[in-house]
């Protein structure tokens, strides 16, 4: 059974940092990543990473966020620096076996105060 367990969200002041973690179990995923959804908005890609280490970032977080992955632990991390109030959202871990077989975590709230 596939399970994604997220941790690391919270409240931080603008300019601060947070690190999110997502531990996966039940399978090895080709691509893992993070999406976020703010109230009233669609869920958007934050960052993704393949088993080989290739990364992809949303335009709004480039240069501030860094995604990494520990394949031995089947865990993906998101280091978020220089946080802005507009980064406030629920962050969801995403893990894909294929384009059609995708799993989601339960979400973790990140709130950035101005």
Percent of residues in helices comes to: under 10%
Radius of gyration: 13 Å
Please provide the count of β strands.
11
State the major sheet.
Answer: 7 strands, mixed
> What is the mean pLDDT?
96
How far apart lie the N and C ends?
40 Å
Q: Given the structure, what is the number of helices?
A: 0
Q: Please mark out the parts with pLDDT under 50 across 5 or more consecutive residues, or reply none.
A: none
**What gross morphology would you assign?**
globular
N-to-C SSE string, H for helix and E for strand: EEEEEEEEEEE
Strand content: over 45%
Provide the structure class. Answer: mainly beta
Would you write up a description of this structure?
The protein contains no helices and eleven strands. The chain has strands spanning 3-7, 10-13, 18-25, 31-37, 44-50, 55-57, 65-70, 75-80, 89-96, 102-104, 108-113. Strands 2, 4, 5, 6, 9, 10 and 11 form a seven-stranded mixed sheet that branches. Strands 1-3-8-7 form a four-stranded antiparallel sheet, with no helix packed on it.
Fold topology:
Elements: E1 3-7, E2 10-13, E3 18-25, E4 31-37, E5 44-50, E6 55-57, E7 65-70, E8 75-80, E9 89-96, E10 102-104, E11 108-113
Parallel strand pairs: 2-11
Antiparallel strand pairs: 1-3, 3-8, 4-5, 4-9, 5-6, 7-8, 9-10, 9-11
């Amino acid at each position: 059974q596939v399970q994604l367990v997220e941790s690391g969200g919270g409240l931080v002041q603008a300019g601060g940092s947070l690190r999110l973690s997502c531990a996966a179990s039940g399978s090895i995923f080709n691509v893992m990543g993070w999406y976020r959804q703010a109230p009233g908005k669609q869920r958007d890609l934050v960052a993704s990473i393949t088993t080989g280490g290739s990364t992809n970032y949303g335009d709004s977080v480039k240069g501030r966020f860094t995604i990494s992955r520990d394949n031995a632990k089947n865990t993906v991390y998101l280091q978020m620096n220089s946080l802005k109030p507009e980064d406030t959202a629920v962050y969801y871990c995403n893990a894909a076996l294929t384009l059609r077989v995708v799993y989601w975590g339960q979400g973790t709230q990140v709130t950035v105060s101005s």
